[in-house]
Specification:
The protein is built from 3 helices and 4 strands. The chain has helices at 2-19, 42-53, 65-90; strands spanning 99-103, 106-111, 116-123, 129-135. A hairpin with a 4-residue loop joins strand 2 and strand 3. It is elongated, with a radius of gyration of 37 Å.
């Protein structure tokens, strides 16, 4: 009889706990960063934390007037050279012959003979080069 009582009590307890539903809910993720929809007041806190971890010091020197002028002049010359190459390739106007040009640390060789215009640009500092081929139209 004692054994039957314990079995009945065990089954009763099991029935009580088994009948109750699990108390779980769905997990919901919310972003922290305000750039991705998080709380707007977290922005300054996150920026302060990032700046505290940043050990990079930006070293920027203002270019001199002479350096700015040289760069501007080199861009203007390269712009005119590229315009002449395009005019020659598409036959719109003017006559352009190839040649060798040194502009702003770049060595430019233009070859207009053959079925296309070949432009070879070489960086005089690093030695790297790029070849551009433009067909005639």
């Amino acid at each position: 009889m004692k054994k039957g009582f314990f079995v009945a009590a065990f089954l009763g307890i099991l029935l009580i706990f088994g009948a109750s539903g699990a108390g779980a809910t769905q997990l919901i993720w919310t972003p922290v960063n305000p750039s991705f929809g998080g709380f707007y007041a977290n922005g300054q806190y996150l920026l302060d934390k990032a700046n505290a971890q940043n050990h990079f010091e930006e070293k920027y020197e203002q270019p001199s007037v002479l350096d700015s002028f040289e760069e501007s002049l080199a861009r203007a010359i390269l712009s005119q050279l590229s315009s002449k190459i395009v005019e020659k390739a598409f036959g719109t106007q003017g006559e352009f012959t190839g040649g060798h040009y040194e502009v702003g640390g770049q060595s430019i060789d233009v070859d207009t003979s053959g079925s296309e215009i070949t432009v070879n640009v070489t960086d005089t500092l690093t030695g790297g080069s790029t070849t551009i081929k433009v067909p005639y139209y």
